[in-house]
Amino acid sequence: TAFIVDPGTYVYSADLDERHKFRSTAYHSTVQIDGEEQNTTQRDMPFVIGNEAKPRVLEWKTTEDFDKVVAEHYGYRRLPDPVTHRRSVEFNKRERSWLIEDEFFADADHLYEMRFHFAPDLDITVQGPAVEARTADKTLIISALSTEIDPVLEPQATSHDYGQILGSTTACWRISGQPGKLSWKIH
Quick count: other Cβ atoms within 10 Å of Cβ 153? Predict the structure, then answer.
């Protein structure tokens, strides 16, 4: 059972507004800062994307107990107060859980919107600063470990096949200021 998914493509040029939404930062399970895209995009150029992010892997480690990758990108360095976003993702093989840590290097306050994009047909509920996604027989919980802010559920869409669109939900935590590091446990 898939819980957290990529939204897919939907269409390429038949509906430029939908194409623009489906490739946006807000439609993916990552952090959007100040409402900007990680890489610049233009609605009327559906096959062109900027190269501002320039992601790079800083660490990759795998052991019997865990897999871990640390990477950062520079897509938000073009903001008036530049921000570097570093993400660490660790899979604990014994617990079968994930720890995601997002670090932000900036001098001023910003609006950070952390999203997780869920597959269609899941029952999604907010439980304080956590979100539960359920099927008939399985549950996935995403717990915010470093904030008490409750997420907001946003209606979005997912496209498994070209031209097909299904309703789905995204959980979004909106945090203003200088959070330094935000952590999420998925179990």
Answer: 14
Residue 26 and residue 37 in contact, taking contact as beta carbons nearer than 8 Å: no
pTM across the whole model:
0.94
Kindly give, in sequence order, each residue whose CB lies less than 8 Å from that of residue 137, ignoring residues fewer than 6 positions away. Answer: none
User: What would the DSSP string read from start to end of the chain?
Assistant: ---B-------SSS-HHHHHHHTSGGGSSSEEETT--SS-B-TT-TT-B------EEEEEEE-SSEEEEEEEE-TTTTSSS--EEEEEEEEETTTTEEEEEEEEE-SS-EEEEEEEEBPTT-EEEEETTEEEEE-SS-EEEEEESS--PPPEEEEEEE-SSTT--EEEEEEEEEEEE---EEEEEE-
pLDDT per position as a tens digit, 54-104: 999 999 999 999 999 999 999 999 999 999 999 999 999 999 999 999 999
Cβ(12)–Cβ(38) below 8 Å: no
Say how far apart CA 150 and CA 142 lie, in whole Å. Answer: 12
From the list 85, 83, 78, 82, the residue with the least C-alpha distance to 40 is 78
